[in-house]
Amino acid sequence: xxxxxxxxxxxxxxxxxxxxxxxxxxxxxxxxxEIHRKEAYENGLVDEVVSFQDVQDVDIxxxxxxxxxxxxxxxxxxxxxxxxxxxxxGSTKSDIAKAIPKNIREQFVLAHxxxxxxxxxxxxxxxxxxxxxxxVLCDLQDSSDFHNRRAxxxxxxxxxxxxxxxxxxxxxxxxWISHLPHIISFSLANSVMKQEDPRSILDLSAGGFRDMxxxxxxxxxxxxxxxxxxxxxxLKSIEFFEQELASFKESIRDEQWDKLQDKMQxxxxxxxxxx
Amino acid sequence: xxxxxxxxxxxxxxxxxxxxxxxxxxxxxxxxxEIHRKEAYENGLVDEVVSFQDVQDVDIxxxxxxxxxxxxxxxxxxxxxxxxxxxxxGSTKSDIAKAIPKNIREQFVLAHxxxxxxxxxxxxxxxxxxxxxxxVLCDLQDSSDFHNRRAxxxxxxxxxxxxxxxxxxxxxxxxWISHLPHIISFSLANSVMKQEDPRSILDLSAGGFRDMxxxxxxxxxxxxxxxxxxxxxxLKSIEFFEQELASFKESIRDEQWDKLQDKMQxxxxxxxxxx
Lengths: 275, 275
What we know:
Two copies of one chain form a homodimer. Chain A is of the alpha/beta class and 275 residues long.
């Protein structure tokens, strides 16, 4: 089976690495960045780096680029066959769903692998990124059974767990569980860097601050795009979080220590959800 | 050398475990919670569990209880010798520094090991918690050289890196780098649990949300105390963070995508501080 990957960074490169372990797949890739093309080939993420036109001539074509890029590239395809399955891996889904041209809608599968790190680029790709992680497949009623089955099979090959929902629900859930935490991490990192010197940050940051600021190292280009495409859900989640934080602040300000402890106790319930 | 530990949870228990590996130390402990006393002994955190009176009869006495407890216990000592070094391990320092009775001030060393996890209790203690971590020693001018040297030696024995500052500076820095991140994590956990069902949280939380919400599992009793004792610094840091988050929100609301990307780029500088 011939696999094409557009975008050879962490997401696309890790797919290439994982699939290349099996002899059933030949993986070709394209990236508009020349350095990325070179790094991807040299690090074995793909069997071959090809042109934008040639990468479309495959059985399954992954779009592993930022969400704005996906929408742009949808208008540029010029060498697709009708039986090629196109799978986008963007972090938001509604805007992409709306932008898919009618003539390729049936062969297009919207997917979001819940995997990634704060790193980006071909050198951050690794085998095993997807193992045991969830992939969300959206709006499957709009793709044909043939292409859905193919998508499900290839994600199973990557050892992923499948979840299905519509693209609007996806964007709403991920605003809370993924996009809001990123914006908070960026804001925390900036607050601390504006107030504290690097020496103190390095000396005093135990695991807590390191964890809370890890996402702040994420790619600005990618997260600007995600914020743009999931703007309304994201704004709602930020506003709700602001109120929650304000209520913690009020308990501290008004020295209502029992109330504060109750709120912390409520937060502890996460133990029961995420072991 | 005889070591006493008051409080046999994660912090005190891990000290016991580490020091017991060397034959030079005999470790005795006390905890006012009966179950903790039993668990601590059964899991080898101490050589012996003793009474509150007997635990004071040692060369070095560690106070490994929440900060309010430390201040309370300072008034209850009734069996201390003049050459016993007392080391508190609380997460805030100014209020404790003020509460130390004059007659034991010279033998008291204020320390804050920058180590811990979201877990608590004797069963969460582990050998290696302190290795290569920073310990902050405060107001050393107020303790005698003999006791300071002893404290430095015992932390070196635990393979910790020593940093010195005054207690007010400590509380200010830790508000930003440790206490603020905790309050944010509690608030994020509550926001998401109020808005999302457990199934979605479990399915969609990749590493990002897990990291950002880990601190929300921390002990409410301990973090209520810390918030109380570092109230003013903490309030200042929350307010500054609120402004920073509001500025991210405004860029998203007003669709100022370049501005948003600039702020994310600024956050990326953390790469240079925390590798």
